[in-house]
Amino acid sequence: MSRCWHRTDLRKDVFAAPMMRTQSIRFCKGTLRHNRSAALRLPKWKSSIKRVTGRLRTQNHMSAIDLQPLVCNSSLTVGVDIGGTNTKLAVVDSDGGIVLREVVPTASMQDPRDACLEIARFVTDSAKVRGLPAGSVHNVGVAVPGVLAPSSQVLKEVANLPKWTGFAIRDELQKLFGNHIAVSNDANAAAFAEFTHRHLTQETLALVTLGTGTGCGVVLNGRPFVGDGGCGGEIGHAVINCSPVARKCGCGKWGHLEAYTGAAGVVQTMRHKLEHAPGNPLVSKLKDRPLTPELIAEEAEQGNAACQSAIDDTARFLGIGISVLCQTLNPSIVLLGGAMTFGGNQTATGRRFLSRVTESVHQNSLEQIAAGVKIAFATLGSDAGMLGAAELARTTGLQPVVSSA
Questions:
Q1: Residue 321: exposure state from Cβ atoms within 10 A (0-12, 13-18, ≥19)
Q2: 84-134: pLDDT as tens digits
Q3: I need a labelling partner for 387 at 20 to 30 A (CA). Which of 1, 24, 200, 207 fits?
Q4: Backbone torsions φ then ψ of 357, nearest 5 degrees
Q5: What is the pTM of this model?
Q6: pLDDT digits (tens, 9 = 90+) for 301-311
Q7: Is residue 24 classed as helix, strand or coil in its secondary structure?
Q8: Strand, coil or helix: what is 343?
Q9: pLDDT at 296 exceeding the cut of 50
Q10: Dist CA 97 CA 110 (whole Å)
Q11: Dihedral through CA 392, CA 396, CA 401, CA 404, nearest 10?
């Protein structure tokens, strides 16, 4: 197979929309970076390409990306991850490598039709930027932060994007492209990315996402499991405390896992610890900084016993929730991902958190179930949603959605 030529003739019309966007583009053995907002301020936009022999750390992807030469006849797919703050878009090759990526603020797309038009613009611009031949980009996959009706793909509930509720996003995108579109819940898309990244086939995998809330995506028999109503695997709203003093969840119900393992729950646990330790060094720092899981993790890493205890409690609660999942689905792999893993494998606090979660799962599950599950941190980071969306589109159909004009 022939390899693509390096290109520097990026067209000016890719700067048509006046908003901050940052791209990192892979051109075979070279990589081009540009910042659109900065380019708009220059009298003449200039591109530059540099050769990369090892690994690249990009502005929008904090973990290293392996750069491999792009083969001309590779099948390309667009993956989109619509988040509460930012929307990530990428062109992905058949090996799961990110060829081109872009980030736009979701606030600019409060109307879901604007998001569909933004996706269409990205697909068109991607073809122009790469000088792609007709039919080079295949299919579009979109991950959304809400509940999807399994058959109609209508958004039934969308966190932080109220105008999106009731929107038939797949149908709207099909009007624009006229071809196959794959739409998935973001947690399920991320779980599918982790599943394919590990080259799994029939194993059951669950990805528990930790952040503002506690979500979960499940891959069962090689495909994302959504249940009859689109809510399959949502352990964040499983009850783990039925006592009169159970916490109230953000959904309005009582005793849910998310009330203990979401960001607000971790902060509440920490505040309770500080009530019994008013002299803790963390108290003085709260004069200048808000109490957040990130600050708690920083203090725990420095040896603050109360912070370590709060994270241990969070791990214990999470283990109870995961044990419910394990008793129900009996997965062989449960991964912990999201923005709140307390440093993950990179810190002693993160590794301790994982160990405490595993201990809790073993304490609350049947022995044969606990012995058969591996609990680990997810590896794809914030790219998992768009990579999973692209992979779902790739494995569901192979119809071209754009040609180079």
A1: buried
A2: 788 999 999 888 899 899 999 988 887 899 999 999 889 888 877 777 765
A3: 1
A4: -60, -45
A5: 0.77
A6: 999 999 999 99
A7: strand
A8: coil
A9: yes
A10: 29
A11: 70
- CA dist., res. 152 & res. 119, Å (int): 20
What are the DSSP E strand ranges found in 145-255? Answer: 146-148, 155-158, 181-185, 205-210, 214-220, 223-224
The single-letter code of the amino acid at 183 is V
pLDDT grade for 44, boundaries at 50, 70 and 90 = very low
Confidence of residue 397 (pLDDT cuts 50, 70, 90): low
CA distance 379 to 345: 10
Cα–Cα distance, 322 to 336 (Å, whole number) = 10
Q: Name the residue among 392, 366, 388, 370 with its Cα closest to residue 379.
A: 388
d(CA 169, CA 134): 25
- Helix, strand counts (H, E) of the chain: 12, 18
Distance CA(348)–CA(335), nearest Å, equals 18
Q: Alpha helix locations (H) across 158-303? A: 169-177, 186-197, 258-261, 263-275, 281-285, 293-301
Q: Please, which residues bridge with residue 98 across strands?
A: 92
User: Which pLDDT does position 346 carry in this prediction?
Assistant: 96
In the block, which residue shows the tokens 């793909």?
153
DSSP 167: -
- Return d(Cα 65, Cα 69) in angstroms, integer: 13
Report DSSP letters for 305-374, one per residue. Answer: HHHHHHHHHHHHHHHHHHHHHHHHH--SEEEEEES-STTGGGSHHHHHHHHHHHHHHHHHS-HHHHHT-E
The whole-angstrom separation of Cα 271 and Cα 38 is 43
pLDDT recorded at residue 59: 33
Hey, what are 163's tokens?
């105008």
Q: Name the amino acid, one letter, at 101.
A: R
| Tokens found for residue 376 | 């680990």
Q: DSSP string of 87-129?
A: EEEEEE-TTS-EEEEEEEEGGGG-SHHHHHHHHHHHHHHHHHH
Helix 112-130 to helix 169-177 angle (10° resolution) is 40
Please report the pLDDT score of residue 98 as a whole number: 92
